[in-house]
Amino acid sequence: MPTLLVANRGEIALRIMRTARQEGYCTVAIYSDADRDAAHVVAADLAVPIGGNTPQESYLDIGKILDAAQRTGADCIHPGYGFLSENAQFARACEEAGLSFIGPSADVIELMGNKRQAKTFALAAGVPCIPGYEGAQDLAELQRQAARIGYPVMLKAAAGGGGRGMRVVQDESDFSAQLMSARKEALSAFGNDEIILEKALSEVRHIEIQIFADTQGNCIHLGERDCSIQRRHQKVVEEAPSPILTPALRQTMGKAATALAQACGYTNAGTVEFLLDSDGQFYFLEMNTRLQVEHGVTELITGTDLVAWQLAIARGESLPICQDDVALHGHAIEVRLYAEDPERDFLPQSGKILYWQHSFAEDQVVGSTSPAIRFDHALATGITISPYYDPMLGKLMAWGKDRNEARRRLSHALQALKLLGPQNNRAYLKQIIDHPVFAAGSAHTGFLEQQFSPAVAGSESVSRAHALACALLHHARIPAMHFTSGAANWQSGHLPLSREYRLSDGIHSFAVTLCATSTHHYTVTLTAEIRHTITLTSIANAISSSGELAVSIDDVIHPVLFHIGDKQLSMLFEQRLWSFTDETYMPVQPVSHSGTGLILAPMDGCITQICIEPGATVESGSLLATMEAMKMEHALRADGGGIVTRVNAYAGDQVHSGQLIIEIEQAG
């Protein structure tokens, strides 16, 4: 039996293993200290600890991975996507160790993984490219070339992808600062600070062509994916096929993609990415030498298993079909579910999954009477979302016989997700899918910045949530003895009961008054004008620490998903995730209008830059330091003006969430 080591983690590893088992492979997982109890470890036939927590200490350590392969007798390695999947050094090391690397050759990865080299090669192959510059790296020459291209100009990390090391420069005055920032991020992410320039195109579509090539010289494409919904150059929603491509344009772009693949001697799965303007002109963007995160939507409309194809090609087999056999059926849309807080500038989140359940059927046969929903994930109640890795929780996909059906199914599936824990972007994604511009199929790469405004909770929704939170926290505290004789025990002296509470939503504290008239019926007063009556309709005794309830608020029944632990309440209510703390018996904190002067790390991560020294005078909003966490860079800024009195960290330090980084003695 062939043995496949998956050099990745989480849902990525699970996706690869699912197909590998069906194809008759023994599967091997590797895991860091943080992933000891992860789902991919449990799912594998064999699992090897590789130590460490950060990617550099674990999943990016080539030596540890090859050692794990040797110890388990693995004869092939699948890199998944992310981590080492586009690392030529890793592919070459696998080849030298006698292991079959599931992907293209190291030489091709090296050629196409560098944006400068790839663009030069694409131009030579006759593939249209965005006007730009790929030459000398000195500041004066780059500025001169930017002026020649014409602003706005895009700076791009030559060795990178995924939006890292990318900046849009609007005019020459900002060029130097943006170049420095892009180079720093590129060096941190890819170990290479080389930058290329491209003309920044606006209101374009991001179209990628899925290609496959075997070792016999056959190369085909499986249509396109539209990845235009992006935030900070990172994909948020993907769909296949594109709602704007004509069959003729699909054929033209597909031929360009396969021609490029054949010109560089490509084998296995790959993606050629283009930008498409409103005139129907397309330009080469980059080639990803791996399986893409969004490959699932292609599988749904073509009825294929692309991982099975990858394994077959690595075994030396020919492609199972030719270009004329490729047929696209229906439409599929995918969203990326992230542990991030859209209301705090999408700050990545970590922490425990308090409750997880879904109420839709997954992996149904496309075209069946059941909803065609697929969710690639590694979620389970009780697991911890680590701060060391990408915050993506999973990829939710829906198929329909047409785009509208797929969109409706996906919207409903997002609503059906029952997930409590770290803040996530579920509600944000649903708003995108339901937006009329997206529904019309006319969203371009500037959609999220130019056309989309996420809805915030209205005042009535907020007051209902506050009242419900008070009722749930109160109900959970009622001693069990009060329920032993039912409501009669309450009516013999315990009710009506009135109690003052003080709750916090993490930003503001608020006082509420609760009046209980039965074991599960409450009137909650927030202000003189705002009062809600709440009945916990589906229970008549003490509630558990988590679960689903039907609650009546002002005679309207609402579903609520909740978890209570240590005076903390998390609940999914009216399509939003809410978190509250019971501060009733905590000391009252003084109100500060100007900030504390104590700059804390917002999450676990690595300090990448300290921008000030003790004694420096800063203003509110001044950049003090930068840190990297969950594959993103975050700025730490002053919360008020004053003098820096202490710096407690250095560049390169690993810090924990809440750790004091900088102290400022604030003016006034």
Automatic annotation (TrEMBL):
<dbReference type="InterPro" id="IPR011761">
    <property type="entry name" value="ATP-grasp"/>
</dbReference>
<dbReference type="InterPro" id="IPR011053">
    <property type="entry name" value="Single_hybrid_motif"/>
</dbReference>
<dbReference type="InterPro" id="IPR016185">
    <property type="entry name" value="PreATP-grasp_dom_sf"/>
</dbReference>
<keyword id="KW-0067">ATP-binding</keyword>
<dbReference type="Pfam" id="PF02785">
    <property type="entry name" value="Biotin_carb_C"/>
</dbReference>
<dbReference type="InterPro" id="IPR011764">
    <property type="entry name" value="Biotin_carboxylation_dom"/>
</dbReference>
<dbReference type="InterPro" id="IPR005481">
    <property type="entry name" value="BC-like_N"/>
</dbReference>
<dbReference type="GO" id="GO:0005524">
    <property type="term" value="F:ATP binding"/>
</dbReference>
<protein>
    <recommendedName>
        <fullName>Biotin carboxylase</fullName>
    </recommendedName>
</protein>
<feature type="domain" description="Biotin carboxylation">
    <location>
        <begin position="1"/>
        <end position="453"/>
    </location>
</feature>
<dbReference type="InterPro" id="IPR005479">
    <property type="entry name" value="CPAse_ATP-bd"/>
</dbReference>
<comment type="pathway">
    <text>Lipid metabolism; malonyl-CoA biosynthesis; malonyl-CoA from acetyl-CoA: step 1/1.</text>
</comment>
<dbReference type="InterPro" id="IPR011054">
    <property type="entry name" value="Rudment_hybrid_motif"/>
</dbReference>
<dbReference type="InterPro" id="IPR050856">
    <property type="entry name" value="Biotin_carboxylase_complex"/>
</dbReference>
<comment type="function">
    <text>This protein is a component of the acetyl coenzyme A carboxylase complex; first, biotin carboxylase catalyzes the carboxylation of the carrier protein and then the transcarboxylase transfers the carboxyl group to form malonyl-CoA.</text>
</comment>
<comment type="subunit">
    <text>Acetyl-CoA carboxylase is a heterohexamer of biotin carboxyl carrier protein, biotin carboxylase and the two subunits of carboxyl transferase in a 2:2 complex.</text>
</comment>
<dbReference type="InterPro" id="IPR005482">
    <property type="entry name" value="Biotin_COase_C"/>
</dbReference>
<dbReference type="GO" id="GO:0046872">
    <property type="term" value="F:metal ion binding"/>
</dbReference>
<dbReference type="Pfam" id="PF02786">
    <property type="entry name" value="CPSase_L_D2"/>
</dbReference>
<feature type="domain" description="Lipoyl-binding">
    <location>
        <begin position="588"/>
        <end position="665"/>
    </location>
</feature>
<dbReference type="Pfam" id="PF00289">
    <property type="entry name" value="Biotin_carb_N"/>
</dbReference>
<dbReference type="GO" id="GO:0004075">
    <property type="term" value="F:biotin carboxylase activity"/>
</dbReference>
<keyword id="KW-0092">Biotin</keyword>
<keyword id="KW-0547">Nucleotide-binding</keyword>
<keyword id="KW-0436">Ligase</keyword>
<dbReference type="Pfam" id="PF00364">
    <property type="entry name" value="Biotin_lipoyl"/>
</dbReference>
<dbReference type="InterPro" id="IPR000089">
    <property type="entry name" value="Biotin_lipoyl"/>
</dbReference>
<feature type="domain" description="ATP-grasp">
    <location>
        <begin position="119"/>
        <end position="315"/>
    </location>
</feature>
